[in-house]
Amino acid sequence: MDEKVAFITGGATGIGKRVAFSLAEKGMSIIITYRNSHKAALALVDDLRKTHQVKALAIQGDAASEEDCRDIMEKVIASFGHVDIFVHNAGPYMHDRKPMNEYSSEEWKYIIDGNLNGFFYLAKDLIPHMRRRGWGRVITLGFERCETAPGWIYRSAYAAAKSGLTSLTRTLAAEEAAFGITVNMVCPGDIIGEWKEQEIKVAKEKKDRTVPIGRPGTGEDIARVISFLCDQKSDFITGSIIPVTGGKDVLGKISSV
Fold first, then answer.
1. How many CB atoms lie within 10 A of CB 134?
2. How far is CA 77 from CA 36, 128, 147, 211, in A?
């Protein structure tokens, strides 16, 4: 992993932050994007530099904006020249539960843009750099069973965007395999709140009977899988949709509510 550059969208907080730590532990340079979490982003960059002695950069920008994505890429290439690993963690989510016909056009478009189109805006500029180097790792984030295009009551925009992203992930995997680039999706289970940045050792001290393995899921659970997919020897894994749920039927429970 020496001299590799990892680019994580939405990396200032939550699961993205835990992924940044995981990849920095392997000696990678880290680039994160953030929309509003300015202080958190700067604090993370400072921590990565001091703790892991790696290069780190935070860039403000909204993954839902094509213009912002273009500006982000210009800064990334100007600072590092290339990206080896792209983790599209950013993705707006509407916490209000409401049926599709109550969405405004602006709300619908923002969720689709942030989760699906934003990946396209960035990947189309990153892939050529990976091709020239003959190596790359692309990771998207989905939700449980998104590869089946399931219905998700009161989450129509998010479900539609992630289901589309799943298909795009598999398509890109097929298109880029010959260039040494793998493309996979990781699907977190019911990981919420402070658990997104937490370590597994902390979760093992807390019981959660709603999860078959008996403990809450953490950001580290997701980061470990992403880190594995980024390994040099993980080149035989591409086009895969990998659920990390602790055995919990997250979508089945939510959809029945």
1. 9
2. 22, 12, 32, 42
CB 144 within 8 A of CB 187: yes
How many Cβ atoms are within 10 Å of 236's Cβ, its own excluded?
A: 6
- Please tell me whether residue 242 adopts helix, strand or coil conformation: strand
Structural domain for 68, as ranges: 5-255
Matching residue, tokens 């680019």: 7
**Residue 256 reports pLDDT greater than 80:** no
Rounded CA gap, 8 and 6, in Å?
A: 6
Count structural domains, the chain. Answer: 1
Measured over the CA atoms of residue 76, residue 79, residue 81 and residue 84, the dihedral's sign is negative
Q: What's the count of helices (H) and strands (E) in the chain, helices before strands?
A: 9, 7
Cα distance between residue 186 and residue 161, in whole Å: 15
Confidence bin at 250 (pLDDT 50/70/90): confident
Instruction: Return the DSSP state at 245.
Output: S
Query: CATH no. for residue 42?
Result: 3.40.50.720
- Looking at the whole model, is its pTM more than 0.85? yes
What is d(CA 251, CA 117) in angstroms, rounded to the nearest whole number? 24
